[in-house]
Amino acid sequence: MLKGLIFDVDGVITDSATYHLKAWRALATSLGIDLPAAADDELRGRSRMDSLAVIMRYAGRTGQYTEAELQAMADQKNAMYQQAIQSMNADSVLPGMRQLLEDARQAHLTMAIASASRNAPVILEHLNLTQYFDAVVDPATLTHGKPDPEIYQRAQELLGLAADEVISFEDAPAGVAAIKAAGQFAVGIGAATTLAAADYNVPDTTHLVLANVIHAFQQA
Ligand code: G6P
Ligand code: MG
């Protein structure tokens, strides 16, 4: 029986995924790296240092920098990102999402956040959504990033639920892979071609209706 919902943040609750990608692209440009468009889907959902590793791989520079140099690059990206998210407010919630959270609350579903971002709690405050969530996984406590299932398993544990009692929402291929590896029902938000591993797909959040998602969960 369905008892809880687990949400990624960037690209699911708000459009901050775009800000992450912009900041990574700005960092890459400053390093003389020309990132192909295909890099975007690989960067989505990856932890800060894993994202930087993806960029270095595209640039053919893996292993060329010290840990301290990589950390300085990650800090530079994070500073640009934090600047960008400062302007977020309650209007920055993606269309349909606040309604979905409200419907879930009415249905007495418990809710958790499974974002790899250390900035996610600040964003939830900006959006005035913190009160909807019973648990927020602290990514600093994790050993592995998405696509490893750890973050979704942790969220489920914090809610005190089993894998078949939750529905999890993602916009990233790595995130959908993490949900499926955790044995949970995955809702993919975005291009169905890149999120083909999800159990239920919508092109964007305007198509998200809780009753429809629950119906698909019950059919599965
Ligand atoms: C999320 C985003 C990624 C980002 C990661 C770490 O998963 O989708 O693009 O790299 O969080 O975010 P942070 O804010 O901690 O650098
Ligand atoms: Mg995301």
From TrEMBL:
A molecular function (GO) term:
magnesium ion binding
Alphabetized UniProt keyword annotations: Magnesium, Metal-binding
Site label Important for catalytic activity and assists the phosphoryl transfer reaction to Asp8 by balancing charge and orienting the reacting groups, positions:
115, 146
Q: Tell me the cofactor note.
A: Binds 2 magnesium ions per subunit.
Coiled-coil annotated spans: none
Recorded hits in Gene3D superfamilies, A to Z, give: HAD superfamily/HAD-like, Putative phosphatase, domain 2
InterPro entries, per database record: B-phosphoglucomutase_hydrolase, Beta-PGM, HAD-like_sf, HAD-like_SPP, HAD-SF_hydro_IA, HAD_sf, PGP-like_dom2
Looking up CDD domains in the UniProt record yields: HAD_BPGM
A GO biological process of this protein is: carbohydrate metabolic process
Q: Where does Mg(2+) bind?
A: 8, 10, 170-171
Classification via Pfam families? Hydrolase (PF00702)
According to UniProt, the name of this protein is Beta-phosphoglucomutase
